[in-house]
Amino acid sequence: MKVAAPSLAPMLRSATQGRLLARVLIDPAQEHNLTQLVEWTGSSMPTVLREVNRAEEGGIVCTRKAGPTRLVRANENHPLYLAVRQLILGTYGPPAVVAETFGDLRGAEAVVLFGSWAARYLGQPGRAPSDIDVLVIGAVDIDDLHDAADAAERQVGLPVQATARTRDAWLNGHESFIREVKARPLVPVLVDDEILDLAADLLAAQPRAKFPR
Predict the structure, then answer these.
(1) CATH 3.30.460.10 region(s) of the chain?
(2) DSSP per position, 160-205
(3) Which CATH architecture does the domain made up of 94-205 adopt?
(4) Residues 185, 127: contact at Cβ < 8 Å?
(5) CA distances from 169 to 137, 143, 166, 198 (A)
(6) Number of C-alpha atoms within 13 angstroms, CB side, residue 19?
């Protein structure tokens, strides 16, 4: 059965390929096992194994065995490594990039991608997004928020627009902005599992979304 071209990057075979490469290429020094990549992409082991094999045959990734575990990392020696990395991080990279750059933001209880990029990432057709919309839920310092957005922007190559709202504001949903965000596709990238009401609310708002780690 023919798989439709992914909305974010039609030149790729599939969204799974884009998500897998984004996870591997964001940090070329880090290795990932196949189980981690299955969890990240939300796909199956056979599909991930197939995409890893294709990427290795193309020279984009390298793999090695550590006992029974196969580890995957980026191949920085490939002549097109930098070009491929920029393409992937600018399309399927934002969840991994935002999780990394916003991960140490003090006071953040959840970080969510929304807007047109999130819609394309979840498969809704439309024009390619021109920026990345990020919502941070929690009590954060605005200067730290902007610094995290700038760091993410430097990696993905697209403007990153970051907004913050408190947990109470998000859960109450009285603000028109929050109601609009909740009504559209969401991609949670960081969620504090200890804040049960917020985690449950995000799952209810986007029941098919994965929480990448």
Answers:
(1) 94-205
(2) EEEEEE-HHHHHH--SHHHHHHHHS--EEEEE-TT-HHHHHHHHHH
(3) 2-Layer Sandwich (3.30)
(4) no
(5) 9, 20, 5, 11
(6) 26
Length of the chain measured in residues: 213
The dihedrals phi and psi of 162, each to the nearest 5 degrees, come to: -110, 135
| Residues 159, 117 contacting (CB under 8 angstroms) | no
Q: CA 75, 77, 82: angle at the middle one, nearest 5?
A: 80
- pTM listed for this prediction: 0.74
With residue 85 as reference, give the H or E element that holds it.
helix 81-91
pLDDT tens across the length of the chain (213 residues): 444 445 555 557 688 888 899 999 988 899 999 999 999 888 999 999 999 999 999 999 999 999 999 999 999 999 999 999 988 888 888 998 999 999 999 999 999 999 999 998 888 888 888 999 999 999 999 999 999 999 999 999 899 999 999 999 999 999 999 999 999 999 999 999 899 999 999 988 764 444 343
Answer for the pair 155, 94: CB distance below 8 angstroms, yes or no. Answer: no
Choose among 127, 138, 133: nearest CA to 10: 127
We find that the CATH architecture of domain 15-91 is: Orthogonal Bundle (1.10)
- For the chain, where do the domains classified as CATH 1.10.10.10 start and end? 15-91
